[in-house]
Fold this sequence. Notes:
Layout: H1 7-19, H2 24-28, H3 36-42, E1 50-56, E2 59-61, E3 64-67, E4 71-77, E5 86-87, E6 102-107, E7 111-116, E8 124-129
Parallel strand pairs: 1-4, 3-8
Antiparallel strand pairs: 1-2, 4-6, 5-7, 7-8
Amino acid sequence: MTSPAHPLRRRIGVLALHLGLLALPVLTGWQAPACAADAQSASAKPAVAQAMVVIDNFTFSPQELTVPPGTTVTWVNHDDIPHTVTEENKAFRSKALDTDDKFSFTFNTPGDFSYFCSLHPHMTGKITVKPDPS
């Protein structure tokens, strides 16, 4: 015959359920890495670079942007009318973006990517992708 769980152990178990993972470090003795370098090495995922281009008043801002490979650029339309983001060589093309709609594209290949709004061709921009000099 087994004895019932110790009352304190049962309370700790219930507390862990209520606090979720916040209680886990206390109950297991887990400690955070001592410095940022240790925290980085503990994580296998590299940081993803991101950039934003705002569409407003019939312009892309910034009009030209330089980013390293692997960067995801997001365009956000803040105009009251639809716009598109269309690369000249068809590397990417958004649907018509209504107010506050977003379009994202990840640039993995170095080079220059000129784009325009297919609804308003005078609206132009350029993304330059080049590796960081390191």
